Amino acid sequence: KQEVTQIPAALSVPEGENLVLNCSFTDSAIYNLQWFRQDPGKGLTSLLLIQSSQREQTSGRLNASLDKSSGRSTLYIAASQPGDSATYLCAVRREGTYKYIFGTGTRLKVLA
Amino acid sequence: DAGITQSPRHKVTETGTPVTLRCHQTENHRYMYWYRQDPGHGLRLIHYSYGVKDTDKGEVSDGYSVSRSKTEDFLLTLESATSSQTSVYFCAISESTLAKNIQYFGAGTRLSVL
User: Fold this and answer.
1) B23 interaction partners in chain A (CB closer than 8 Å)
2) Which residue of B has its CA nearest to A6?
3) Nearest-CA distance from B99 to chain A in Å?
4) What angle is formed at CA B80 by the lines to CA B60 and CA B82, rounded to 5 degrees?
5) What is the pLDDT of residues B62-112, one digit of tens each?
6) Cβ contacts of residue A40 below 8 Å, gap of 6+?
7) Which are the contacts of A20, defined by CB distance < 8 A and separation ≥ 6?
8) Alpha-carbon span A14 to A3, nearest angstrom
């Protein structure tokens, strides 16, 4: 059974710091991995999607990497800003299905 | 937003009553999903649909049923609501092509079962 873990559960950093969020999964038979952002009381917004054949994806100050063999993905946020404060979730799509398994998220607070 | 509307946005109901939540999309995407989000559990898949009248169970499907009679609408029904079904429910959609397999989410429905 696929399990997705995100550590730490919460993180506070000063503005301007570069930071890394972690996502690990137990079954490497994935089709893709997606990172999302969720603001309080809102739905999820997709940030980056990495196909299983890719190693990384970049969008602005965000960079996501994928190491399928070790069951890990990282989301790198450069020069963090207070507006980056949110919960970040990763989700993996299992091979052969359209089902997604989500991690429980990392709640990020960037202090001004 | 990706053209996804969930209704109602908030609902309070009593144990034992039937409840139907609606997800409507304007994107003509093939895949639609229902999730619930609870503290400590993250998002868990209830049911999903891969086409009109084609649905499959997720990891927490007990007590829920779904229907999709049109591409744009995906209904989630709690036949007899229980307090354990108090949660925030999210609908999501995605395309089926390799390059466009991004999931887009609605704003959620907050359901309280008293």
Assistant:
1) none
2) B42
3) 9
4) 65
5) 999 999 999 999 999 999 999 999 999 999 998 866 556 788 999 999 999
6) A86
7) A74, A75, A76, A77
8) 31
A102·B42 Cβ contact <8 A: yes
User: Residue B1: its pLDDT value, please?
Assistant: 54
What does the DSSP 8-state code read for residue A2? -
Q: How far is A38 from chain B (nearest CA, A)?
A: 10
Q: Is B41 on the interface with A (CB under 8 A)?
A: yes
What would the two tokens of residue B85 be? 């079904």
Alpha-carbon span B99 to A70, nearest angstrom: 24
* B42 contacts in chain A (CB < 8 Å): 89, 102-105
Query: What is the Cα–Cα distance from B111 to B95, expressed in whole angstroms?
Result: 28
- Geometric angle at alpha carbon A98, from A97 and A103, rounded to 5°: 105
Mean of the per-residue pLDDT values of chain A: 94
CB contact under 8 A, A34 and B104: no
Which residue shows structure tokens 């007990």?
B62
